[in-house]
Amino acid sequence: MNSVLILNQDYTPLTVCSVQRAFMLMFLKKADLISEVQEKKLRSISQSFPFPSIIKVKYYISIPYKGVVMSRHNIFKRDGGKCQYCGTNKELTIDHVVPRSKGGKSSWTNLVTACKKCNSRKSDYSLDKVGMKLMKAPVKPSYVTFLRMNTGIYRDDWAPYLNPKKFSA
What are the C-alpha distances in Å from 21 to residues 26, 102, 138, 153? Predict the structure, then answer.
């Protein structure tokens, strides 16, 4: 509950930060408050300030690459820390859906989280050959999806900025 969504000047999501960092950006007049947590306040000895939930920077920040780096950690995050074949969260590793020996690449759409047992069972065979199915197809997460995964927090007031298609008229 102590995380704040930071929006760029054009209202696209930039990152998530602490309440303290967001307050400093607002206090230094580098960001504007967009949404606050009504039930909470930030207090000093003599003043009370809004508890930020969403802020927007005043000047556009150009970020040339807003992709998600493919790494073991990020694949585990994308898959929710669960084996994509059986759903367990024990003894996890990475599996190539199409084995490398059969021309499979190390890509977002071919790597999944798998437990050691399922990974051994599948070996270097196709899913059809061993009668296994994926719980969900592996996809490359967007930057916004990755922001949601990494914060572990999802507030209703963040929805229009993190799911713009759902809320556009």
Answer: 9, 49, 35, 17
pLDDT digits (tens, 9 = 90+) for 30-73: 999 999 999 999 999 999 999 999 999 999 998 777 678 899 98
78 shares its domain with 113: yes
C-alpha 104/C-alpha 100 separation (Å) is 4
Q: Helix, strand or coil for residue 106? A: coil
Q: Residue 55, exposed/middle/buried by CB under 10 A (0-12, 13-18, 19+)?
A: buried
pLDDT tens digits along 99-121: 999 999 999 999 999 999 999 99
Return the half-sphere exposure (C-beta side, CA atoms, 13 A cut-off) of residue 114.
21
Number of domains in the chain: 2
**Is 92 in the same domain as 110?**
yes
